[in-house]
Amino acid sequence: MQINFIEHKAVNLVPYLIIAIAVIGISISSWLILQPYMSLKEEISVMEADIQSNQQAEADAIKLEKRVTQQQQLTNRIDGIEGNLMGNVELMDTLHQLMPTNSVLSHFYYTQGDVLKISISASQYADYAAYNQSLLAQPFISDVRFNYLEEADGGDSSAAFQVELDNQGWLEVIENDR
Q1: Residue 5: pLDDT band by 50, 70, 90 thresholds?
Q2: Cα angle for residues 88, 91, 97 (degrees, 5° grid)
Q3: N or C: which end of the chain has fewer CB within 10 A?
Q4: Does 148 share its domain with 171?
Q5: For residues 113 and 116, what is the distance between their CA atoms, to the nearest angstrom?
Q6: In whole angstroms, what is the distance from residue 62 CA to residue 116 CA?
C-alpha cells in the first residue's frame, strides 16, 4: 500500500489539446496558403532559367543571321566580280580582235567609271587610224579619244586610246553572242 501525502489535482488537458490542435491547424493553413506561393516561386525561377537560355539562343541566332547575311553579301560580291571578270575577258578579246594584224596590245586598264585606256604598238600609223575607226564603229563604245603617239627606236611606235564604254550596249553585245 502506498501512502500519498500530496494530493493530485485532476489536470484539465482540454486547453492543451485545443492549443495543440490550433498550432497544427495554423501550420496546415499557413502551409496551404504558402504552397501556391512557393510553387509560383519555383515556376518563376524555372521561367527565368528559360528566359536566360532563350536570350542566349536569341543572341546565337542573331550572330548566325549576321553571318548568313555577310556570307550572302560576299557571295553576291564574288558573283559580281566574276561576272565583271568574264565581261572584261570578253571585252579584251573583242578589242583585241579589232586590232590590225601588225599591232600588239601593250596596256588595257580601267580608269574612272567606264573609261578604258588602251595602248597598242604598231609599225605603221595607218594601223592606229584603222584601229580608231574600228573602235568607233562598235555599238558598245560611246567615245574614242586618241591620247598620244610615241615613237620608239627601231621604227616602232605606240599609241594610247581612251575609250568610253556604253554598258548597256556591251550587255546587248554579250547577250547576242551567247
Answers
A1: low
A2: 140
A3: N
A4: yes
A5: 9
A6: 43
User: What's the chain's length in residues?
Assistant: 178
* 69/78 Cα distance (integer angstroms): 14
Instruction: Give the strand order in the sheet containing 104-110.
Output: 104-110, 115-122, 157-165, 141-151
* Type of residue numbered 94: T
Our measurement of the distance from residue 121's CA atom to the centroid of its chain's CA atoms, rounded to an integer in Å, reads 45
State which residues form the domain around 48. Answer: 11-97
**For residue 50, which phi and psi values (nearest 5 degrees)?**
-65, -40
Query: Is residue 85 domain-resident?
Result: yes
pTM check: above 0.90: no
Residue written as grid cell 597598242: 120
Q: Which residues of 151-168 are buried (b: 16+ CB within 10 A; e: fewer)?
A: eeeeeebbbbbebebbee
C-alpha cell at 147: 591620247
Query: pLDDT (tens digit, 9 = 90+) per residue, 38-90?
Result: 888 889 899 999 999 999 999 999 999 999 999 999 998 888 776 665 567 78
